[in-house]
Sequence to fold (184 residues):
Amino acid sequence: MQTICLSTPLSDEALRTLKAGDKVLISGTIYTARDAAHKRLVDLLERGDQLPVELQGQIIYYSGPTPPKPGMVIGSAGPTSSYRMDPYTPKLIENGLKGMIGKGPRGNEVISAIKKHKAAYFAATGGVAALLSRTVKACQVVAYEDLGTEAIHKLEVEGFPAIVINDIEGNDLYRDGKEKYQDR
Fold:
């Protein structure tokens, strides 16, 4: 299987080339956000207010980076469980979000939104937060500083490794992999 290099913001053309199971290296801007920030974003959308970040074509990484050690850009930045964002994700996808990075499977409503709006869900390997943080070249808080490590951070990444779990066709690497071995 090949490794595909992606740049943000994600284009529909780039997303069409991805299949569940593909390895990707992501470069460009990604945003971190966890459940509290997601709730605030969706509340803004429901009120018709402007978001503090541009979602069109962007990726949200489900992470709460720790403070950096001296001389570092960022501390550990590992993925968190994605299901906690499921209540908010369809609305964000509907409003232009094209990619999410986390760990674990997504609910049916999220997968339907991914398929309908041509987005993708990527998994990052848990347990290697310090290694993932090495791909981060710049980091700044851009919204909800009061949330501490769960504030929205703007990250500039180079070669961030992930695997496509859900592609625009609705394929699901977790489901397909499980079925493959259950049929034996």
Q: What stands out?
A: Helices lie at 12-16, 35-47, 89-94, 108-117, 129-133, 173-182. The chain has one domain: 3-182.
